[in-house]
Amino acid sequence: MEAMSLFFLAILMMGLSVNAQLQTKFYSSSCPKAEAIVRSTVESHFNNDPTVAPGLLRLHFHDCFVQGCDGSVLIAGSSAERNALPNLGLRGFEAIDDAKAQLEALCPGVVSCADILALAARDAVDLSDGPSWSVPTGRRDGRVSLSSQVTTLPSPLDSVDVQRQKFAAKGLDDHDLVTLVGAHTIGQTDCSFVSYRLYNFTATGNPDPTISRSFLTQLQTLCPKGGDGSKRVSLDKDSQTSFDVSFFKNVRDGNAVLESDQRLWGDAETRRIVHNYAGNIRGLLGIRFDFEFSKAMAKMSSIEVKTGTQGEIRKICSKFN
């Protein structure tokens, strides 16, 4: 236990230096219950529907990759980010709105929606048996949200080189890329994002040869040819609700659901990182992933943040002031 305490103390200290403009316990004086309210709200929604956890994690990721971590993905409107094609399946908005309403009642005009989203993503992972970490706060909300700018998000069709370029553009390296993609240990996707791999990969009329034979049969049963493209498939076939390293074992064994995930095994550098994580489900390798994921999330959540007098503190997360 002492070793584990030191382990996560390191994560805490690490969070302090991720971005000098952000601070741990930023709301300790202005709204001391801010983090506790976000946590209790996420927990309430999670208890009602555990699938909100990957939803909140993905929501934060999509926010940070467009305009930085500024809550711009939360804005409603026909031309806003959340209505761009890559964002149409995003979930978790209700949990963020719920937390914001409670915080506005207690500390009006103090806690940003961007910070609520960063905290909620952390709490969602923790509730899914994953790690917790210190989230530096002090982000302010952006005043721009345009669907036309949603061009920088990684796609399930991306090669490793394209994924690498998109992550590098945000200051994230190969290690961050593989580690953050490990978030797919929880969550689901639609059959429509998988079927082409099963029946007509690269217009050959054949399945993707990198899918293991046994898993191909499973996927074809879940997503029959000509079937319902909106049917959901777990991204981690072994432990879809538990935040662990089984996702990396799946990539290693040809059992990844998304093409972009499986491609990580075909690149020498990303394969090395996947191999380092893929091992026993619990034990030292699992702990290492917990540590590295915490570090990568703290790094990602500081992308292009707005602080000080930049942006605003929204009263309602889905509307500019």
TrEMBL record:
Binding of Ca(2+) 1, residues: 63, 66, 68, 70, 72, 81
Keywords of the record: Calcium, Disulfide bond, Heme, Hydrogen peroxide, Iron, Metal-binding, Oxidoreductase, Peroxidase, Secreted, Signal
Enzyme superclass (EC): oxidoreductase
Biological-process GO terms, alphabetical: defense response to fungus; hydrogen peroxide catabolic process; response to oxidative stress
GO cellular component, one term: extracellular region
Intrachain disulfide bonds: 31-107, 64-69, 113-317, 191-223
An annotated Gene Ontology molecular function: metal ion binding
Residue stretches making up the Plant heme peroxidase family profile domain: 21-321
Catalytic residues in the record: 62
Cofactor(s) the protein needs: heme b; Ca(2+)
EC number: 1.11.1.7
Chain residues that bind heme b: 184
Residues that hold substrate according to the record: 154
Record keyword Ribosomal protein present: no
Keyword Signal: yes
Binding site for Ca(2+) 2: 185, 236, 244
Catalytic activity, reaction form: 2 a phenolic donor + H2O2 = 2 a phenolic radical donor + 2 H2O
Cellular localization per UniProt: Secreted
Family, per entry: Belongs to the peroxidase family. Ascorbate peroxidase subfamily. Belongs to the peroxidase family. Classical plant (class III) peroxidase subfamily.
Main function: Removal of H(2)O(2), oxidation of toxic reductants, biosynthesis and degradation of lignin, suberization, auxin catabolism, response to environmental stresses such as wounding, pathogen attack and oxidative stress. These functions might be dependent on each isozyme/isoform in each plant tissue.
Protein name: Peroxidase
Organism: Trema orientale (Charcoal tree)
Lineage, top ranks: Eukaryota, Viridiplantae, Streptophyta, Embryophyta, Tracheophyta
